[in-house]
Write a structure and sequence with these properties.
Blueprint (H helix, E strand, L loop, with lengths): L2 H6 L8 E5 L4 H13 L2 E3 L7 H6 L3 E5 L8 E5 L8 H6 L2 E5 L2 E5 L2 H7 L7 H16 L5 H10 L3 H10 L1 H8 L3 H6 L4 H42 L1
Parallel strand pairs: 1-4
Antiparallel strand pairs: 2-3, 3-4, 5-6
Helix pairs in contact: 6-7, 8-11
Amino acid sequence: MGGQACIFYGAAEFSRDLDLLILLDPENLARIRNALADLHAELVAVPPFDANHLKRGHAVHFRCRREDVAGLRIDLMSSPRGLAGFEELWERRTTIEIDGEPIDLLALEDLVRAKKTQRDKDWPMIRRLVEQSYFTKAGTQNREEIEFWLRELRSPELLLDVVRAHPSITQTIAHFRPAVQAALTGRISAVSRALDEEEADERCRDRSYWEPLKRELEEFRRKNRGKESA
């Protein structure tokens, strides 16, 4: 659900870690613990690997020490901000095959949604992911893909192109996306301004979401320091 998924979707990004969205049930957690043990994975930060912390929205971080994967970082999450529950995400996942092995990825739209964070590096990646979809499928697209572009394109010129090409579909999306409303005016400056405001709003939402979780992480660190000094 992170940089590796972006690579598989054709939006190349150098990534040293592997972000995984996991199902929280006892059987699956046991399988994950066994896999981490096989990789000689060590917890590298707070919080500890606990289902309750994952349910709260925290990520749990590991570093692999087994020789063939030494240094690989694995981040586990189960409840990312703004995403549906695991079962729903699983139903609409994308599965690809690499060397005969199936690889399950977040659906593209879910991956784009997961990337709407306060981090600077995520917004260019969203743009590349949606542009890759547009340039790959333009001319053969269906209504679902057109609606996806209207909801998520971050390139003013491309958004204007889609709005002009699909006026009837545009009217539906324009009701809830100001950037599409701006595109209806035909003014690229208005579209750029709306996209900037949209990004600023999402960054603010993400900061607000993480604020209580960051306080919890500080409390975990304080308790750990107390244990170490005891």
